[in-house]
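Form P-L/3: holo structure prediction, ligand FE2/S2 (inorganic) cluster.
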Amino acid sequence: MESVTLNVNGKDCPVQVEKNWTLLYVLREVLDLTGTKCGCSTNDCGACRVLVDGEAKNSCCLLARNLQGCRIVTIEGIARGGELHPIQKAFIEAGAVQCGFCTPGMIISTKGLLDQNPDPTEEEIRKALEHNLCRCTGYVKIVEAVQLAAKRLREE
Ligand code: FES
Ligand code: FES
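OUTPUT (holo model):
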């Protein structure tokens, strides 16, 4: 085991990890942050996405021991003081959540996009979500949710 301190949702979390433990495994099984989902474990679905230093990445393919000092944000860190984030509200309002399994990853990718680009085109939105698979919605409502979230955030 190795000691590593992960900064997760603004809090330093010292953990003991095996060499081959992924960030996804540590989040779910060690830190009990089960909002981040495992859809494939093979870097294909985006259900496990988290922000690492502001960039959306698949946590199933990152080794926890390499993330000392990185700022990690999971879906649990998105809400604002007990209230849903405007992105989360927009997903609900636009009907972009069905089974919900892909939703945490979608919201993380959206947050990563809108933090960098507050007024993205539809093409830029689709590009930012290209690593997130959804088997329920057909993506139209998800794109509409991101557009709605972007509008709301610009108006704040
Ligand atoms: S669980 Fe990581 S990409 Fe599917
Ligand atoms: S809402 Fe079911 S997989 Fe996306």
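COMMENT: The mean pLDDT is 97.
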